[in-house]
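Batch manifest, entry 17 of 40.
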Amino acid sequence: MRARWLFLAVPLLFLVSCDTPTETTDSTDPNFKKPIPLKQSCYDPDDPLCLPGPAPDDPNPNAPGYYIGPDYNMAHCTQSNDLDDDGFDDNCEYRIARRFAPLLATNPGDDTSREPFWVARYREALPYGDDDGVEIMYLFSYHMDWGDPETGTSSHSGDSEFVVLWVSFNETSEHWLLEGAFYAAHHEEGEPPWNDREGPYSMFETPDKDRGYTRVWVANGKHASYPNKRTCNRSGTFFADDCSYNSDDERVEVSRYRNIGSATHRFYNCVYSENQVSYPGTECYWNQGYEFCGWDLDRTQCSTPYAQHLEEFGYGSFEQ
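Output type: structure tokens
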């Protein structure tokens, strides 16, 4: 997320572990947790939330947006199981976040290894559209920002890029609909958002169906998020961001066990990497003073704390 003008580091490519899901807590510090590992693909034939197109029991398969089940309407989702106390049912959050998980378009030669988390909450008035709904923030948590040799922008550990989607419910079609989105691109609070993109659903590519999940064009090496190839290729420092050779890769991984909760009821804060051999550090999502370093032990060249982004989008004020 943060561009630094230093000498380029030599890239090292690591693989993310996909072992059998387990959850452990370090006995010496209960605030540090190891989250359940993720599958690296959302396309699970047994999971209709991940498949493109309508669900098998969709009463209106040709309508915009997605049907996620007979009991998952706005009335149910705002009056049911809400352990993180953010005004929205936790299972509804998961089902909607998974169904709308963005599709990443990446350069095949880029290292986009990541361990993404997410957070969601109820909003009485969405920024776009006339309805209340749910806001979903996908925290991509890239291990590295590889910099750009042409502009002299250095690499740094960790890349705290993110995308926010706003989704409403249509009572007639029983579908959840994309209303708008915010794409972070080299985003830092307090600095001019030259590269960020925000707007209604019509600004964003929805490769599956109308008002469905979006496509995110990921700048090669720098990992900034853009709504289309042209915007990517005209953005960044000295317009150096590049998506010229990008192609559809995979949907952002969304696990039920990667919801960080809320500022007052945190499901996760400080976490270990699922691959402590390659990434032995820790990351804290709710701490303002904890820069995101991609689980690297060397915390001298890192990216903006995720807590700053969470606070900016109204998730609360957090300690240093």
